[in-house]
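Suppose a classmate hands you a notebook page containing two proteins, each written out with its sequence and a corresponding row of structure tokens. How would you begin to make sense of it? This section walks through that situation. The first entry is reproduced here exactly as it would appear on such a page.
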Amino acid sequence: MNQRARIAMSDDDVAAFLESSRKLQLATINPDGTPHLVTMFYGLEEGRIAFWTYGKAQKARNLARDPRVSCLVEAGDDYDELRGVLVYGKAEQVTDRDRVMAIGMTVARRMTPDVPDDLLRPYVEQTGRKRVAYVVERSKVVSWDHRRLR
């Protein structure tokens, strides 16, 4: 077995890793073709990466023009601890306001663990007025867990 196959995560491991993580690196494509890379808190909607942002943000403008994204979630400091999931896909904009708010709550819960929903809801309702949400439809997933090399 080659090293790449040894470190790849199973589908269940990928799902568990995405469920346990809080932030991702989101890459969209700028008008000039260069990558636009930002760190985002995210949530999951039926196992798919979901996030929200202000409607006038660069990433939202990029996604309106070209919905292709790369989402990197990683962990570990030393080489033998590195783990990660790279999701390629298309970010589909969510237009239903109730669903946008639900995604906002999911993201807010990850941003502020252990804060009760009744304290998060006013923040989500306030900031949600100017936000748009997206769900990533995967086209490819690449994963690695260097702990398997031990």
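The notebook's second entry, a different protein, reads as follows.
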Amino acid sequence: MPGFAYAALALVGTVAVLNLVLTLALARRLRETRAGHAHDGEPVPEVLPAAGLAVSGFAHADLTAGRRTVVMLTPTCPPCQTLLEDLTADAERRRPDTLVLMIGTPEETAVMAPRLTGFDTATISEQLAEREFQVKGFPAVLSVVDGVVVDSSHQLPVLA
């Protein structure tokens, strides 16, 4: 019986060491992810612009004076549809300073347009959104003050 007890003790010890090694590997992976690195060590690409980006040359709307909220939505992404519902649910309070950019062709964005009545809207290509606003992921919500991005997010700002 002592041989069986030693084998069981060795097995339990081995499982405990394996568990510790895997836990430490998981902790390291979480730290890398929070630090903005992918599993291969490459930086995770930014999908939203950094604060300080000048967007004053945008031809579809005047963003040079005052505060504007620029909302970018695509007709095919589920998070965009959720954000569109939130935007239209509180439309009266959000309309005055919100510009909604529908990403795609006019045919693709035609289903969204009727829901955005009363908002300043424009349909632009994904390439234009990336070139003018450095946005590579949607939905995107930018706070623009006097032609400069001061904040970016994937959610609408909280209204006071």
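A careful reader of the second entry would note: The beta strands are 67-73, 98-103, 120-124, 140-145, 148-153.
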